[in-house]
Structure formats: structure tokens, C-alpha cells
Amino acid sequence: MIYLDHAATTPIDARVLDAMLPWLKEGYGHPFSLYVIGREARHAVERARERLAAFIGARATEIVFTSSGTESCNLALKGAAEHLRRKGHHIVSTAIEHQAALKACEALERRGFEVTRVKPDEDGLVHPDAVRAAIRPDTILINVMHANNETGVIQPIAEIGAMAREHGIVFHTDAAMSVGWIPIDVEKLNVDLLSLSAHKFYGPKGIGALYVRRGCRLQALIDGGGQERNRRSGTENVAGIVGLAQACECAEEAFRRGEPERLRTMRDALERGIRERVPNVLINGHPTRRLPHCLNLSVMGIEGEAVMLELDRAGICVSTGSACSSGSLDPSHVLLSMGRSIPLARGSLRFTFGRDNTLGEVEQVLDVLPRIVAQLRALSPVSEW
Ligand SMILES: Cc1ncc(COP(=O)(O)O)c(C=O)c1O
User: pTM for the complete prediction?
Assistant: First the structure.
């Protein structure tokens, strides 16, 4: 199998699993218990908090562990909006967010908030000026994702964050797609809130975190025993938290050995090969402001789903659009908002590389993809393909 869908999820790193196992076996103490195994679990959680904080340039007290990227986005958006309800009712978000933020914003609209969704340009970039134009006197919250999960386009978060600060508006970014793939620093990004998810970068599923800048207040979504400084109750997922911290260490090590450059080389080789061997293909997303492991393209005249299924028969895993919306044949809302036509949005494929991929695998994909596209086009009602 050739796995080229690392933006959907990643395999767990062996070092992450090794770090987690003791906390699933003998280290089962409750982190609130005062006897030895409880204190050890508490110590493991706090050490992990420090490691994650250092990884993104934060303080340990600014980290809230959650169950997922989805929960982090919900806590950030609903928690901040509800806390600020008396100050204003307007939120600025974008048309290209992941379902987690999209649906949280829709829920906030049902609770009486107003949401303006800024569109990206045709390269998938959200312009700071467009965000500025959407700000109103009653705007309390701005939400712009860091890197888009379909195109990999990296948004100008630092500029938008500086603008939000200038206006005294709370700023959240969903960095689930980028944390672990490129270095992230919450200070440089000027964010108040940042969501991330462990399974997106070789950690376990079911654990995420929210960075909450000191002084930024949130209303909790989950009430109970007061864990996570009353911001997210529920007994901590000790093994998951330890795994998340270990995944950060593995990512740091990968950065040190130049993994982003290696990923970029493979991605560019695939992009070049497809351009040379498959006619009528359009690359989706900004040519340079893209995550190094991500390639999204539209194959004109055929459905991305059909190509994906044929690649699957050849043992190659790729995706069409975002993982959460595959299974539905709706065209990608991200590509539509970039001005792509419905047929082009339906013809989209996403390849996302990871640490185990090789240039040899790129060649294998390039061996089968042109044939699959030609066969599907021969069956397509549009004869010129
Ligand atoms: C950009 C983005 N945000 C949020 C999420 C949700 O993360 P999780 O799967 O941990 O709920 C994802 C996962 O697909 C994502 O890509």
C-alpha cells in the first residue's frame, strides 16, 4: 500500500506508542489522586503540557487538553463568543474552514450571533484586507484557519492577528493541518487561541489541545470536576496527552533533519510528473504558500471519487477534498469559494505525503495515474478527453 493521505490521519509513531503504553498499563492512576500512582500520572500530564507548550512557543498554563481538533475549535469559538456576548454579537470567519469551525459558527448563529464569512482569492488565500473590511464595531471574534486542510494553503495569520490585536478582537486559528508539519510559534502568529490535533502528526486519535493566551477568557463547554483550570472538565486522557507530547518531540526531530524539504521534493516531483503526463489538470492552491506535503489538483472531465477508487484498487490511498466530507459527493466548499466550477471541484484529488513515503512511490503513482485518468476519460460523456 502507498499511503498518501496524511492530512486525513497519520499512523502512530512507534516512539509515541512506546511513550504511551506505560500509562495504559501500570500507570493507570487518576491524575487527581494524591497517592503515588496518581501523583505520577499528574506529573506525566504536566510534563507533557510543558513539552507541547515549548513546541508552539507558549507557556504551560496556556495549554488546555481536549479530545480532538474538533473539540478545540468548538471550545475556542463557542467559549470565546459566549464569554464576550455582552460586548458584541459579530464574528468574522472564512468560507474555507474545516467542518469543525464551520459548524461551530453555524451553531453560534442559531444562538443569536452574526457571522461574516470572508472568501479567499482564486489561490485559496484569505487577504488581511478582506478580513479588515469585514470588521465592525461589534466584532468580538475573528477566526481564520492556519493552513487549509484541502489545499494546504497557509494563510497570513500573523498579519491578521496583528490587525485583530489592533482592534482588541479575540483571534482563533485552527492549526490542526499544520502543527507538526511546519514550525508553529503562537507569539509570531499573534493568535489568542490555536487548535491542534495529535492524530494529524503521528500522535494518537482522540486527543487535541487548545492554546489559550494568558488573559483570554472562555466559557467552558464541558462542566464537571474542574480539570484543565475549569476550562475543560473530565479526567485527563493521560496516555493520549503523553502521546501528543511525544509526537511534538518527534516532529521537532523531523524538522531538525530537514523533513519538510524532503516532503516538498516528493510533492514537487509528483506535481511535475502529473503536469507532464496527464493533460488538462489544474493545481488548486497558491503555488508557494502551501504546506510542503500537500498537493491538491482537479482532473478535468472526471470525478475525483472515481480516480480515488481506481487508485485504491492499485493500492494507493488518496483523498478527494477533506476526509470528513468524503463519503458525500458534495463538491468541495473550499474549491467552490476559490471560484472553481462545480465540475472542477468534483474532479479534485488531494495527495498528502508523510515520513514513510519515498520518491520511488511517487514514480509508482505516476506509472498508474495517467492510465487511470485516460480510461475514465474514455468512459466520460465529454468526448474531448
Ligand atoms: C483543519 C482541521 N481542523 C480540525 C480537524 C478536526 O480534528 P479532529 O479529527 O481531531 O477532530 C481537522 C481534521 O480533519 C482538520 O483538518
Answer: 0.97
